Amino acid sequence: MKDKREFRLADWAIFLGIAAVLILASLYLDHAARVWMTEHQSAGLRSFMQMVSRYGDWPEHIALGLVLCGTAYWRGSKRWVRIFAAMILACALAGVSARVVKIATGRARPNVQTEAGWNGPRLSARYNAFPSGHTAASTAFFATLAFASWRIGIGLLVIPMLIAFSRMYVAAHYLSDVVAAALIGAVAAFCIVRWKPLSIGNPQRRDS
pTM value? Predict the structure, then answer.
């Protein structure tokens, strides 16, 4: 038991180290990414990205999760009811976590003209850039599915990636905002999947 605990702590230490490197690297690349987004704007693509951002927020994910949960219940699959319920919980957990951090940091969005990028606690949405709530919620939602059923969920991870790109393209977030959000979403998904009452972590468990 002791060895297992030490292994888990080591895993978290490695994850935190990798996460720190990714966030620092993305902070360094923020300006270059913003310049690229600005230089590659087109009316058609911007319209599409605005639509992705509009329908890629947490209410749409929660609504989808409830529909999937209801469908699984109607079909009598208790395991999939638990999986879809876990996706909803992870989405909510990541969304709340991202909200707390973004209010605390008060980072101005790319489309806000200000000298101070980080302003401390702010409730205004104009200063709630870090991290991206859209990206955190979507990553948690689909990462939970990927953790529970890798074959089904892995391909759907392109959805949070697209949402993250859209948030940068419409000048709502910097690269580091979506990278940090994706990490928050991944952690939320992992924690929910490992939550014992749900019992969805074992891919060989049969529907019952």
Answer: 0.88
